Amino acid sequence: MALEILMPALSPTMEEGTLAKWLVAEGDRVQSGDLLAEIETDKATMEFEAVDEGVIGKLLVAEGTANVKVNSAIAILLEEGDAADATVSPAQSAAAAAPLTHEANAVDAPAATAAPAAAISNDGTRIFASPLARRIAADQGLDLAKITGSGPKGRIV
Question: Which domains does the chain have, with CATH numbers?
Answer without folding.
Answer: 3-109 (2.40.50.100), 115-157 (4.10.320.10)
